[in-house]
Description:
By secondary structure, the protein is an alpha/beta fold. 35% of the residues lie in helices and 22% in strands. It has helices at 10-23, 93-107, 129-132, 135-143, 160-170, 179-196, 206-212; strands at 33-46, 51-52, 58-59, 64-77, 82-88, 114-118, 145-149. The strands form 2 sheets. Strands 5-4-1-6-7 form a 5-stranded mixed sheet, with helices on both faces. The protein has a two-stranded antiparallel sheet with strand order 2-3. The radius of gyration is 20 Å and the shape is globular.
Amino acid sequence: xxxxxxxxxxxxxxxxxxxxxxxxxxxxxxxxxxxxxxxxxxxxxxxxxxxxxxxxxxxxxxxxxxxxxxxxxxxxxxxxxxxxxxxxxxxxxxxxxxxxxxxxxxxxxxxxxxxxxxxxxxxxxxxxxxxxxxxxxxxxxxxxxxxxxxxxxxxxxxxxxxxxxxxxxxxxxxxxxxxxxxxxxxxxxxxxxxxxxxxxxxxxxxxxxxxxxxxxxxxxx
Length: 221
């Protein structure tokens, strides 16, 4: 589902062009560009044991038991063809701060600065670092990250959504009963996809946006 952005909106095009300019930066392992996105996953337990059929398919009962919701975080470095999937119990500003801290301190401990492209959500609050870390650590972390927010109604500009589509299509069954099973599926998909090492071939640029999305740009003198 796409949300149609507002016409002649300076705030939208300003944020959009900033994201698109970031995507045009050359690959630099010391200053990587990483995309972050989150998505809920409903946990469902089968009410009856699925029945294998002679043709190799499986028949599932239409009934199931709800087991709560888990939050799946996707962290994707498009130019390196690298991604990590992280499962959490909730999606809030504190979980966000911990996820970014792990990204900086474990995944990119050797990077001088990480540019993080992410959606403009209420949970994405840099101030949350100071709520859970001491001031020295919070300040040090924030010095090493550049937040680049997609515009409202423009989450499609986040390349992590491409990886989510691949995960949902090829990595997760429709019904996952619990968090450990979800984590196992996500890790297996992550491992296989990282072994391919294919970068994301993003073709949409600022120049193309000014042509194809001309209606979004304010009319000037």
